[in-house]
Specification:
The complex is a heterodimer. Chain A is built from 15 helices and 19 strands. By secondary structure, chain A is an alpha/beta fold. In chain A, helix 14 packs across helix 15. Chain A is globular. In chain A, about 50% of the residues are buried. The model of chain B has no long low-confidence stretch (mean pLDDT about 90). The chains are: A alpha/beta, B alpha+beta. Chains A and B meet through helix 4, helix 5 and helix 10 of A and helix 11, helix 13 and helix 14 of B.
Chain lengths: ~450, ~525
């Protein structure tokens, strides 16, 4: 199937999934999991499910993992103009900020509404208070960012659960030694949906959203290896692109020229003899900023379903895994671009998008990767924020570092080989770029 | 390894000796009667002890050995002989008449010191072998079960960040000093002590350290010692054992004991020396260690003594025997996971307020802010004080603090603050606005000289803001993990099924019993 036919098929499937999830919520389904690729409309699906539950006169609780995620859900629900109020259940010291009409700010449990309602709060907030008037269902957004331990505390909120999220993204942060629980049947530190899916005894319904609306067609191919399920792209080949005025013949211009016939390209810088800088690579930061300046100087234009228009600084995002590298990126930007070009870690890019992303490969400063380094969540987030173009920057050891690495399979018995799988997926990502001739060396 | 650690290690190399880490000591060292040293040796490839040395500092250690480390009966007999000493030390009710009846009666914290991490692993092996064993004579099996539960708890406790009960000597030294050597060599206690205690310059210390590491301190013996000195005697003992020649067995057992004894004594004495080095350090102990000791005492009660007395606790769960391997019940796993998270938070926050060097490290790593208060204002026009401080800080290091981050004033952990905004304020400077949330007024029972948070005299003062501890939140979560009778417990607290949790009772914990107790 090609072009509009393929898109229509994806639309039909997305509609079918949305209807199924909506029915599941209102029919009293007890445990459902929705796997969503990046930019596939999962928040829309969530909002639709909230509305359906509320329309069916249910008490609906909504949980997300950060305050900004919850605020965003509240704003978007209010903008749907359903006629229903959404209660923002916040911490006592949180600031309400400016919330649209239809959002009610509540910090005390006793002030929560009785009867049919929609109440949204963070998982942490829901887990720490004492709920005396339970809800019919709790809908959990960004569920793959929530640990099983945090999920357990939501047992007091509702009897039915719907978990929605992107399985390719960053796992819950673990700051302590968790060897004790690696072989536990319900490891408290692991993402809650993983724990549920891996337990064959837990009966649940599962859905996978069929395609990404955000990513260009070839970018979907690039990130698909990071997922355990197949999905397509609503954008068809060539629909999304970055076009530029003619430039020179240097590596910088050759790099940008690659965006004319594909959404992804990479630039490698020589690895110093003494090895790449660990966290803060000033040379790489300067190269990233040069890409930003070249895009703007060459009058880059972006085309997507919204039409074709000139790329502006606010359309560009920069991302590196280390905050110190992001500091270097920010400081390297000319004053007039600071604050316009968003610079942040992958953790904070989750849920966001922009037209063009410039990302520093997570393994650029790593010669001997650990299982943590090879875990693909961060790379997946970085490579799935753009609507039109993405440039990957790295030191040129990356191919050989991955090619020569031998994973040790040191995972606990019965657990997934995160290191081996991470290596395979990282290799697939890089090999795809190099094999397609989309890597320029400086 | 962070850049800061690399620099410190290079400085130690330049100085030719280990350099103090931190301006205070972060380790509790109990008085001698409260401090039991234990060291093990094992046969190559075995996970059971071949010999055990134990005793208090300044006393001759008790030495137990068996002629054949692969003989389970002999090893179990030796373990049963060792058990009372360990159980008495940790005040088990069957071995200590004054055993505490509640958390407030713990008194001085009892500690266990081990030479290095391999000896800690041996506690785990012992827990695996004996926690559920039913082999052999009934009383002996019961004693071994108690030993298994005690060593299992000690091993688990050793994994809890900041705990002060199980001290690995080589790690305690690394906490106190920066040694000019590779990580892998720093696991050798003799190597570290030679660096620390040898007189002279770098060459002399390096030579002494090199000599020291030729003698093993791990639980395994040097291969030539085991192969050439011990194996012939072990073969002879086995031959005599097969022939039921008691006299010959006794003779060969004596020969084996004579060779294992100095190995065990060396490990014991090295641990003793490490304690001495730390005791002689001129730095004072960080005031925050007191809170770490208090938590360790609570853990001794809740995770060991209470369990042995079979007393259930509403907030800490029912008294059960945990598996040496993992926590199979979801509530147990989640609760303990949160306790470890809480301990991790407490560890850093307890110590940082009383250690200038730790504060400087936190600033250098971007977790803390140091600057000058440029402005103090109370933005609440009413009676409710809402103080905002505007700080000017140097922007010369990566900053990991974000808008919304929770911090507190170094030295005043209760004066907490939330970051409202971070803006550039000229070249190399940042303007950071923080809202003071805790201890806004002049504290009545706080340190002297502390001003109210809206006092204009604070303008111009240097201030360091360090991360605020989330310990309380994790503790609350750990207690909430036990809550039952919730609408979603059919999922969140359901008994996991499958072969992993259906273990025979001589191998694993009784999950059904736990589920029953939770259902009360």
């Amino acid at each position: 199937m090609k072009g509009d036919g393929a898109r229509s098929a994806l639309e039909a499937e997305a509609k079918r999934q949305t209807t199924a999830v909506r029915r599941y919520v209102t029919d009293g389904g007890r445990l459902g999991i929705v796997r969503a690729p990046p930019g596939s409309g999962k928040t829309w699906l969530l909002l639709d499910a909230i509305k359906a539950g509320r329309t069916a006169k249910m008490r609906v609780a909504v949980a997300a993992q950060t305050n900004s995620q919850v605020d965003s859900i509240c704003r978007r629900f209010a903008l749907m103009e359903t006629g229903f109020t959404i209660t923002r259940f916040a911490g006592g010291t949180a600031q309400p900020g400016t919330l649209p009409k239809g959002v009610e700010w509540v910090t005390e449990t006793k002030e929560l509404p009785h009867g049919p309602c929609v109440v949204a709060g963070t998982t942490a907030k829901w887990g720490l208070v004492n709920i005396t008037d339970p809800y019919d269902v709790i809908l959990i957004d960004e569920a793959w960012q929530m640990s099983w331990a945090d999920f357990m505390l939501l047992g007091q909120v509702a009897k039915a659960f719907l978990l929605i999220g992107d399985p390719g993204q960053i796992s819950p942060v673990v700051s302590i030694d968790v060897a004790r629980w690696e072989t536990a049947p319900r490891p408290p530190h692991r993402a809650a949906p993983h724990v549920i899916i891996e337990d064959s005894q837990l009966k649940r319904d599962e859905w996978s959203l069929p395609g990404t609306r955000r990513l260009p067609h070839d970018a979907a191919d690039l990130v698909r290896p990071f997922y355990d399920f197949d999905f397509g792209a609503f954008a068809q080949p060539g629909e999304r692109r970055v076009s530029l005025d003619p430039g020179g013949k240097g590596p910088q211009d050759r790099l940008l020229d690659l965006l004319r016939d594909g959404s992804a390209a990479a630039l490698t810088l020589p690895t110093p003899d003494h090895g790449p800088p660990l966290e803060q690579d000033v040379e790489l930061a300067a190269a990233a900023v040069k890409v930003v300046k070249s895009l703007l100087a060459r009058g880059a234009q972006v085309a997507d379903e919204e039409g074709k228009r000139k790329l502006i600084a606010g359309d560009i995002g920069l991302c590196a895994t280390h905050r110190s590298m992001n500091s270097a990126l920010d400081l390297s930007l000319p004053r007039e671009l600071r604050g316009q070009v968003r610079v942040d870690t992958p953790e904070r890019w989750q849920g966001l998008e922009c037209k063009v992303m410039i990302v520093v490969h997570p393994l650029s400063g790593v010669l001997r990767p650990s299982a943590f380094d090879l875990e693909t969540g961060r790379l997946c987030v970085m490579a799935s924020r753009h609507r039109a173009g993405m440039i990957v920057l790295t030191r040129d050891h990356l191919g050989s570092t991955l090619g020569e690495f031998i994973p040790t399979a040191s995972q606990a018995i019965g657990r997934r080989d995160v290191e081996g799988r991470g290596l395979r997926d990282n290799l697939a990502f890089w090999t795809r770029l190099t094999a397609a001739g989309r890597v320029v060396s400086r | 390894m962070t850049g800061d650690q690399v620099v410190k290690r290079l400085k130690a190399w330049a100085a030719g000796k280990p350099l103090p880490r931190g301006s205070t000591l972060h380790v509790h060292i109990a008085q001698n009667p409260d401090l039991l040293i234990v060291a093990f040796v094992r046969m190559g490839g075995e996970s059971a002890p071949w010999g055990i040395a134990y005793g208090f500092p300044g006393t001759k250690p008790t030495i137990l050995t068996v002629p054949e480390g692969r003989n389970r009966t002999l090893v179990a007999d030796m373990a049963a002989e060792f058990a009372p000493a360990l159980l008495r030390h940790f005040r088990h009710r069957d071995y200590d008449r004054g055993s505490p009846a509640g958390p407030k009666q713990i008194g001085a914290l009892r500690q266990l010191w081990l030479p290095n991490r391999t000896h800690l692993d041996m506690l785990h092996f012992i827990a695996y072998a004996y926690t559920f064993t039913r082999v052999g004579e009934r009383d002996r099996a019961k004693t071994l079960n108690k030993l298994g539960r005690a060593t299992g708890w000690l091993f688990r406790e050793a994994m809890r960040p900041g705990q002060q009960t199980v001290m690995v000597a080589s790690e305690a030294l690394q906490t106190a000093y920066t040694f000019p050597a590779e990580d892998v060599r720093q696991a050798h206690l003799g190597f570290l002590l030679a660096w620390a205690a040898t007189k002279g310059g770098r060459d002399a210390r390096l030579r002494a350290a090199g000599d020291a590491e030729r003698s093993a301190v791990a639980t395994s013996l040097d291969p030539p010692v085991e192969r050439d000195d011990l194996q012939p005697s072990v073969d002879d003992w086995n031959e005599a054992h097969r022939n039921n020649d008691a006299k010959a067995q006794s003779r060969h057992a004596g020969a084996i004991e004579a060779k294992l004894r100095p190995e065990l004594v060396r490990r014991f004495e090295l641990t003793e020396r490490a304690i001495e080095v730390l005791r002689k350090d001129p730095r004072r102990v960080n005031r925050g260690v007191e809170s770490l000791v208090a938590v360790s005492s609570e853990e001794l009660w809740y995770q060991f003594l209470r369990q042995e007395l079979k007393i259930d606790d509403k907030e800490d769960g029912p008294a059960i025997t945990l598996s040496p391997e993992t926590d199979r019940h979801p509530a147990v796993a989640a609760s303990r996971y949160y306790v470890h998270e809480a301990s991790d938070e407490l560890y850093l926050s307890a110590l940082v307020h009383d250690d200038d060097e730790m504060q400087a490290e936190a600033v250098a790593e971007g977790h803390a802010l140091r600057g000058i208060i440029a402005k103090v204002e109370d933005v609440d026009p009413g009676r409710r004080m809402e103080p905002i401080w505007t700080l000017i800080v140097n922007d010369d290091a990566p900053l990991r603090v974000r808008e919304g981050s929770w911090l507190c004033v170094a030295g005043l952990p209760k004066r907490s603050a939330r970051v409202r905004s971070i803006e550039r304020a000229g070249p190399g400077k940042l303007e950071v606005q923080v809202e003071i949330i805790g201890w806004k007024k002049k504290p009545k029972d706080g340190p002297r000289g502390v001003l109210a948070a809206d006092d204009p005299r604070l303008v111009g003062a240097d201030v360091t803001l360090v991360p605020n501890s989330g310990e309380g939140m994790f503790r609350r979560k750990s207690q909430k993990a036990w809550e039952r009778g919730t609408p979603g417990e059919w999922l969140t607290h359901s008994r996991p099924a499958g072969p992993q949790t259906a273990l025979p009772d001589d191998v694993g914990e009784n999950i059904d019993d736990l589920v029953k107790r939770l259902g009360k």
